[in-house]
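User: Second chain of the day. Same drill as before.
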Amino acid sequence: MVDFVKRHVWWLVPLLLFDVMFFSWLLSGRGQREDQPSIQLAPSAALPLPEEPARPPGLRFGYPTDQRDLLNTTSVEVYQPTASGRVESALYGSVRTASFGGRLLPSFHEGIDIASRDRDRRGRPLDPVYAVADGQVVYVNRVAGNSNYGIYAVLTHEDPVGDIYSLYSHLASVERSLQAGQSIQRGDVIGVMGNTASTGIPMVRAHLHFEIGMIKNMGFATWYRAQKKIPDHGTWHGHNLTGIDPLAVYADGSDEPVFSMLDYLKNVSPAFVLLFEAPQALDYFHRYPGLWVGERHQGNAQVIAVSEGGVPISGRTATEEEEALLGRAFSHVLMADETVLGRNGLRLVVQRQGTWELGRAGVRWLEILMY
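Assistant: Same format as last time:
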């Protein structure tokens, strides 16, 4: 026996130690059966879940020219007025008067006209024009006489709402390398300020017409060609672009403001609310789903709220009671706010015999949205 122990002690000792540890583990409760309640860790001992990446609050903007004093809306050194000489005429909104059918009526201006700060000896502007935000070049028109915009460029930018556009027009020239499809960074030079337009702008009133806004319908080019209209600027014709007041972007006066179109539109007061027959959701709300309210559209009619500048700011399916209001009509104005409409230079809705309805411009506007 003594000899056996001497020969096998090398493995008996570890075995005895293992037995002691195993039975201690069982008695401590760690060897409990799976059907017994498990020990719960205190919340403070749990590993934290990874946080979802924060959604960008909006786009970081720069300025379209070296003029940074855009909130000074009474200065002729900042804004270029029309022949009227009124600085207000260079701002956004129903700030102008034009002849329509032999009558002088309010006219809507969808952007701002920024004055030149630097001219050569002949009075020609030397001001460079810059991309206001990172994005993509989608259109460049180099033919001065085939658009009221003259030589112009359109960029798109990824906002929380979806793709928005910025437009730079009446340019003297655009950069030779600027081509549709290329990426562009905030601050990149687009061209030089000028006075180009199909209608003619005197050199003394040369300026940059600048817009920021929403794209009505990506099928616009097909609609436009069906009308057999010329010239053809494809999707990036002015009729398919509807602007907000660009000064909303620069409202805080900072050098590089952060702006979200989605947040902005959710706080815009509607100028009118329109009910219309539409069994299918509009392309507009497919691209800007954050502006749609409620479940996806499944009815025969829709209701959209519209800004003073013609931007659809929200949409939803019409209720059965609202659908009944249509009767045999295609559309019905549910509400119009004269305070927001102001001088109503767009005339998308007009008042006839005390009742608001779509005007001629409004019929075309809705046709583009619905195509």
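The chain has a mean pLDDT of 88.

User: Great, on to the next one.
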